[in-house]
Each structure stands twice: as C-alpha cells, then as structure tokens.
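Example protein
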Amino acid sequence: MDVAQQAVDELAYLAEEFSTAPALDEMERRTLADKATAGPTSAHVIEEVHTPLNFAYTTFTTGSTAFQNIVGVTWSELPERERSGARALSRAGARPDDTVLLCYAPLGNVFSRGAFERAQVRPVFLSRSSRDAFLVALCRERPRVVVGESSFLRASLEDAKKLGVWDAVPEGVHLLCAGTPLDLELLPIAEEKGAVVHDLYGCQEFGWLVMDGAPLRDDLTLVADPQREGWAMLAAGGLPTGDSFPVGGTGHVLNPAGIIHTYSRKRTTPELEVVVQACTAQSALTLERACRSILRIKGRIVRMAPDVVVGAPVNELALMSAWPENRMVAVIDDPEKTVLFARLLEAQERYQATSKSDPLWTKGR
C-alpha cells in the first residue's frame, strides 16, 4: 500500500475513534417536542437549523403586519420568562396535572417549556390547524385552560352551535386569549358555557408580560405616551415593547384592578430607542456588542451614549423619541426595572468568556 494512503487510513481511524468533535448523527437534537411546541400550523414549514449553544432556543415573531423576524432566547433570561408564564397559568386556574390546550403551537415558545414544568401542566396541541380540529380537541381532551387567538375561539364556539356539538363543549374552561387584541364579542358566547376569558399580552421577544391588565413580571415600566393623553408606553426590563395602551380609568374590561388596557393597544409612534448612559459591564466593548445583539435577537434599537459610564453599580437606560424631535422621554435606572437588559448583558458576557468549541473556527498560525 502507498505510504501516503496508509497515513490517510490511519488518520481516518483516529478521526472517527478519538475525535472530540461530534459527527452529524451524534449532535444534540432539539426538537419541537423538546421545546413543548410540537403542534401543527398552516403558516410554517419544519426546517432543521444549527442553533448556537448560547441560545436556549430560537423562534419567530408572528409577523401580523410584516415578515416574521427571528428571535433568540438566551439561557440567562429564561428564569424570569418561565416565571411569568407559570404565573399566567396559575392565574388562569391551572393546577398540577391539568391539560392546557394550545391552539397555535408557537405560543409555547412564548411560555418556554420551563413554564409548563413549573406549573406541572401537560401542554397538548391540535391535530390540525383548524377550527374543526379545535372543537374535537376541546370536547375530547376537556382541558382546564385553552391558549389561543380570541377571534379564532369566538368563531369556533359559534361553529359548535351550528355543527350540533355545543352540548359536548365542556363548562368552565379558562380561555387565555393571546396574539391579537381581545375580541370582545367572545365574552357573551363564552359566558354561555361558564368559560372564564383572560386577556394575555406578550411577545416572542420578551415572553408574557401582562394578564387582564395586571403585570406578570416585576420589571415592567409604564411611561406616559407624549402622543396620546391617558395612554402609556410599556417597557419590559428597560426595553420598550413598541406598544402603547390606555391606562387607569375604570380598569380592564376583565379585571377592575387591572390598569393596563391591553385589548385597546396601538403601536407606539414613533417607537422608542434606548440609549445606555451607564451599565454594569466592565468594558465599553462588551456593551457595544450587547447592543448589537439586542437589535439582532430582540429587534430593539439600543445605543451607547458617547459618555457612557461602564462598571457602574446600576444600569441606566434613557428612552428616546426621535420624532418630532430627538428628546428623552424617560430614564429607567431602578435595578428591579432593568432586569431583562441585565440578563441580556449577562448573556453577552458569558458568551465572550466561552471560547468557540468548534475547531473549524480556530485559525492556524
């Protein structure tokens, strides 16, 4: 045998038997079932992707007004995200071992799998993305909690009467309405079955934030909307959500004590940008990278102030409005109200402290 060929054979043996880099079939697989989102939709294809290890998972915005944008969820932000999801399920009356029916599978990503585990509930999905399939699941699974879009739920209950299955629809189900503003026409038909309707507001970027007008997270801030009297803009962990709401008055239509009227929301005009005036990161380079990361994975514009203070005891975030003039709307510097920003900064620092494990990225000398 040729000496060179023999060397190739020996190298092939070593590469297969002793390499620390995994082969394709040895790589960890994170399936839809692993993410607790293993349900059908009519709006997606299932595509395998290489997901970086520094992400807990990736998902997409709903894209109700434009193309969907990719969202990265970091490991650092999971605890608060899971806690708010479990809190929403608890407020909806979910108890251990209950079934929670999700009408739209990607809503599971807003909860994060850990929320279902914290609440000790069993998420189930429709067999097909249709109102007929929903009615079948509702009557057969008899869930305590249903998570879905309110107009879809209203139309489905109307169909139940037309199709002769109304009497099989279970009584007293909690309907967690999410994804779009609450369809108030759902309320009377839900009442006929003793169903309890809830208004759940949140997004793929930040998780669940408000339920029935009351916060689900401790790091939410309401900032008076200068363009609309009696309205407020919402920031989650120091980052603006892009939505404004009427606040106060007689309370939320489902909860007199809820001051945030999420069913009447409008997009904030113009959307606020964040300028970091001080941060706990020890270097401006780390902060600069974190600002870029937040734009890419959360779709929020975050910039560094020219005179930013690094290594500060707290994060100080200025919310800026670019129109009709560039001006500061509010400053958030309470550590309890900047938790999400702090978690994303923490994720950036962790990433920088971990060298790339794939040897293909190691440049030769």
Summary: The chain has nine helices and 17 strands. The mean pLDDT is 93.
